[in-house]
Amino acid sequence: MEPFERAVRHVSVKTMAEDSVQGRGRSGPIAAGDLSLLFGRQRTTMVQLARMLTGSNAVAEEVVQDAFVKLQQLRQAPDNPDGYLRTVVANLSKSHLRRLRLERRLPATQRTVFADPEIDETWEVLCRLPFRQRAVLALRFYNDLSEADIARVLGCRPGTVKSSLHRGLARLREELS
Fold first, then answer.
1. Which of these, 86, 81, 74, lies nearest to 36 by C-alpha position?
2. Rounded Cα gap, residues 139 and 28, in angstroms
């Protein structure tokens, strides 16, 4: 079982919640209407998350597109499509960075220019962090997820999330001061 398949637990799409309450459940793939609602609600957030994890707008768009394709191809709709989607985006971003590192044999970072020099400096330091620390920081402070939710998304233990968060923040503070 893939790590992102373990992360699906809570119902988020209204029609799916109604089905569960009425006892109908989901026995087939996600309905086109549900998928389009999810796409409208989550696409921008997922692209921004993928951009933070990969450092590239183009790659972020591709990752999110691939995540929605994976969601559509499921034989059975997940209980929590939002959580499933977030987990798939994190895993696909991680896979992309692994492939990129293998191709280049260098850390995968791309310079993103912001209007505010302080943000530029923070972004550079953030891109130098290991994937797990960067992912934990993005999921915690950008998506406002709890440590338990981050652990489910990344397929690790809550203690690992806590230590990654602590180490990532410490390194940011150290390099920015």
1. 81
2. 30
State which of 47, 71, 105 marks the end of a domain.
105
Mean pLDDT of 11-36: 52
Distance CA 56, CA 173 (A): 24
Locate 11 and state its tokens.
């119902």
- Phi and psi for 13 in degrees, rounded to 5? -80, 130
My answer on whether 80 and 119 are in the same domain is no
* The residue to which tokens 């929590």 are assigned: 80
Give just the sign of the alpha carbon dihedral 90, 53, 151, 80: negative
Domain containing residue 99? 1-105
pLDDT higher than 80, residue 17: no
**What one-letter code names the amino acid at 18?**
E
- Are residues 161 and 100 both part of a single domain? no
Residue 96 and residue 63 share a domain: yes
Last residue of a domain, one of 105, 138, 163: 105
